[in-house]
């Protein structure tokens, strides 16, 4: 009997322990336009030095655009209205004066996917100090989240053309509204029409040793882009003149180290223009090391949209370029651009 009783109790406790396993919390889908940021901060802080510093970081101008546009479209609200469906905003920054001093990022607090940055301090000066220390990390977290959301939306309807794979051995997740406009042995041009112009993606390869020295890197990138523009990207027809895309002469592009598809890369942001014709716009280029095939793959997005804000267009192109995958184990052909 004692043995039977012991077995009964053991089984009962096992069943209880199984049933007491905490259930996964249900979270609603997050909401919000791409590149929007909900900032939860009381009005007195928002209208003073703290608000100024928040705007300095999170509404800073995006690099490489034709005119100033902010990193995020900001929606400020006091803490008392941060409730209900407002909690489901995808990117949220909470700033408050408190008895604690802290700065951290939380994931999927009220919805999914979601990032919530929290900045607190006992004084305004302490809040600003914590904000300065954490702002860059938070900006990256919010931007990565927005990139992921944009890429998820692409999956609804993808372009099925094989030009990139056939010519370069790569794939991009590109919305079906984009179409291949030109395909050469080692160059592909894909574009879509927008209300006042076009959004464009080009891809090509250069030899692995194309860039000779770090000291001349920016100049070499400009020369590379200009030679590609002259060969493949003509401008409008102007009698007696040759027009084609070049890098804007007045300002050098911004160049940053990057990692794309697990490979070392360079990120280049700047302004393109048309030689011998008044036409210009922003571009974003990734130059990616493909050491296995002794080459560099160059993917670029550029926009032509006069008198139109271009931040979100360029953001869409960035999201597309960052989906690159290398599908060939062998070099598809000898690099043809020197």
Any key phrases for this structure?
alpha+beta, single chain, elongated, Chitobiase, domain 2, 7 helices, five-stranded mixed sheet, disordered N terminus, eight-stranded antiparallel sheet, Protein Transport Mog1p, Chain A, 2 domains, 338 residues
Can you walk me through this structure?
This protein is of the alpha+beta class and 338 residues long. A hairpin with a 3-residue loop joins strand 7 and strand 8. The strands form 3 sheets. Strands 7, 8, 9, 10, 11, 12, 13 and 14 form an 8-stranded antiparallel sheet that branches. It has a 5-stranded mixed sheet with strand order 2-1-3-5-4. Strands 6-15 form a two-stranded antiparallel ribbon. The longest helix has 31 residues, at 124-154. It has 2 domains: 36-154, Chitobiase, domain 2; 163-326, Protein Transport Mog1p, Chain A, CATH 3.40.1000. It is elongated and about 65 Å long. It has helices at 2-19, 43-46, 49-58, 124-154, 163-168, 217-232, 311-321, and strands spanning 36-40, 73-77, 91-97, 102-107, 115-121, 170-171, 179-183, 187-194, 197-207, 245-247, 254-260, 263-274, 277-290, 295-304, 325-326. The chain contains 7 helices and 15 strands.
